[in-house]
Amino acid sequence: MSLKSYQREFIEFAISQEILSFGSFILKSGRKSPYFFNAGKFNKGSALSTIGKYYAAVLQDENHLDYDVVFGPAYKGIPLASSTVIALSEHYNKDVPYSFNRKEIKDHGDGGSIVGAPLKGNILIIDDVITAGTAIRESLAIIKENGATPVGVIVAVDRQERGTGEVSAIQQIEQDYGIPVMSIVNLDLIIQYLKEKGGYDERLSIMKEYRDMYGIKK
Ligand code: OMP
């Protein structure tokens, strides 16, 4: 797999904004990781505007996807989905409805847990990262509970880790739900970027060690 120019730009951008950082991090799954992608650091207008363009670029690459509504799961998916539909409108002339969920059920006012466009028809999920797939499964359950049909998922980073079994978290979701899971970049591409850049020998070997330990078998 070779790096496309928008993927290289995305990795450079994420490193420069410290959204993608290297060190030692404990993940939700309990795994100790030498890198972390923190979508909470898209914390200013320019960064948020930029990330939307990258998700929109993946959608252009995957132009066979037939979706009616973009769904951003609370909390981190909300600004990401908003920024994606803005990019689709501004750069591709596509006016796509979007919605998100509340984590708390509201029993007054408009009630319900979905805010924005009704969650009906074919739904595309936009989220930050997939590791073991727990967060994505929660979103898929919300969409099904609302009687809508999930048709795909796009995350910024696919960490390419094994889920509960031998296959990757993504492969497992693709098998269980029959939908594609796409990403702007994945661990292999991040490793490839570091290799191309040069001067990161120590970091590279730690990243590869991690991939050997938790990564998918190819
Ligand atoms: P899974 O639910 O195991 O797929 O983990 C995905 C979630 O973990 C993301 O939605 C984040 O909340 C968090 N996460 C990151 O944000 N960045 C990472 O690089 C790794 C994780 C993680 O904890 O695995």
UniProtKB/TrEMBL annotation:
Root EC class? transferase
According to UniProt, this protein's pathway is: Pyrimidine metabolism; UMP biosynthesis via de novo pathway; UMP from orotate: step 1/2
User: Which Pfam families would you find in this protein's record?
Assistant: Pribosyltran
| Entry's Gene Ontology cellular component terms | cytoplasm
**Domain of life of the native organism:** Eukaryota
- GO terms for biological process, alphabetical: 'de novo' pyrimidine nucleobase biosynthetic process; pyrimidine nucleotide biosynthetic process; pyrimidine ribonucleoside biosynthetic process
Which family does the entry's similarity section mention?
Belongs to the purine/pyrimidine phosphoribosyltransferase family. PyrE subfamily.
Q: Which NCBIfam families match?
A: pyrE (TIGR00336)
Kindly provide the name given to this protein in its UniProt entry.
orotate phosphoribosyltransferase
The species is Dentiscutata erythropus
